[in-house]
Amino acid sequence: MKNKIEIIAEIAQGYEGNEKLTNLLTRGSIASNADAVKFQLVYADELATSDYEHYQLFKALEMKKSVWIDTCKQIHDAGKKVYFDVFGLFSLDIAKQVGADGVKLSTTEFYNNALFDSAIVQFDTLYLSVGGIPIEDIDKKLSTLSVEQVDKICLMYGFQSEPTPLEQNNLGKLRLLKQRYSNFKIGFMDHSDGALDDAYYLPLVAMGTGVSAIEKHITLDRELEIEDYISGVTPSEFIKFVYLVRRFEPVLGLDSLALTEQEEAYRNKATKSVVALSNLDAGDVLTLDTVALKRCSKPITKHSILEIEQAIGKTLKIDIQINSPIAKEDL
């Protein structure tokens, strides 16, 4: 099987700038069996002007650096990774100071070249959102990267319409992105309705496109309607989601067209080979009256003749009994 899909529990802004809520969501994310936990590291003046409609919300999200240090330690102690969405050089620096394992640049920061350049130097893992970005702009951004930089990046596709309607997910784009940027890892940002079964099954469909990461929102209780709850599932629901991903992940198999042992065994049982229609003697020339393609009691091997054209007109070296297979070395 190829590398395990990384499952990211996306808290986003759900912590609401509240230390206790941050701790509860962190504990829930750890218990959810996700591989990593991600927050949006928001500082209002870095993200928006003071007259922007959500400025006060962004201001309320600001927390002391010590809280983030403790949160990162809690996540690391549980054997998980922690990532932050960053929105400028200040939050990038804070993410580095508090011990983040990587950062994400959302669509908001796609065109922030200074932030991108600094992030790819400071971190070994960089998630880059390409949702809503024209393909020519993606081409331009990725065209000059070194092999070392490419290895650090996972391109994340998806967008939030609170929630994103099922038919608008355009999962075929994941496959097209993987084809176009074959050297990059590709991930899916799931923004389906957390109240529906879609929240379980949409990511399973995305798995079939070959994604390396799935980002899914987590919340404490949908009835509480805390920030970013719309696409969120509860910790117990997240556990089920992770189970489904891990249960069906092996069906993806290898990124290879080579036959597996089981496929070889199936082929050997199902395939016909050239067999004698009557007792044949050494020196006989094979014709359509004396041989045919049939299944027989002996298994297919590398010596079997699977195409009758390879036998017709050839002369036998040895005697062959009726219903017995004829091997390549017998001719």
Describe it for me?
With 331 residues, the chain is an alpha/beta fold. The protein folds into two domains: 6-252, Alpha-Beta Barrel (TIM Barrel); 259-331, Type Iii Antifreeze Protein Isoform Hplc 12 (Alpha-Beta Complex), CATH 3.90.1210.10. The chain has helices at residues 19-31, 44-47, 55-61, 65-77, 89-98, 113-122, 135-142, 147-152, 172-180, 198-207, 235-248, 261-270, and strands at 6-12, 36-40, 81-85, 102-105, 126-129, 153-157, 185-190, 213-217, 273-276, 291-294. The protein has an eight-stranded parallel β-barrel, surrounded by six helices. Strands 9-10 form a two-stranded antiparallel sheet. Helix 1 runs parallel beside helix 4 (65-77) and helix 10 (198-207) runs parallel beside helix 11 (235-248). The two termini are 41 Å apart. The model has no long low-confidence stretch (mean pLDDT 96).
Quick recap of the structure?
The chain is of the alpha/beta class and 331 residues long.
Number of helical elements: 12
Helix content: 25-40%
CATH topology of the largest domain: TIM Barrel
Q: Count the domains.
A: 2
Largest sheet: 8 strands, parallel, barrel
Strand share of the residues? 5-15%
Low-confidence stretches: none
Q: How are the strands of the largest sheet arranged?
A: 1-2-3-4-5-6-7-8
Distance separating the two termini = 41 Å
Q: Assign the CATH class of the largest domain.
A: Alpha Beta
Instruction: Return the average pLDDT rounded to an integer.
Output: 96
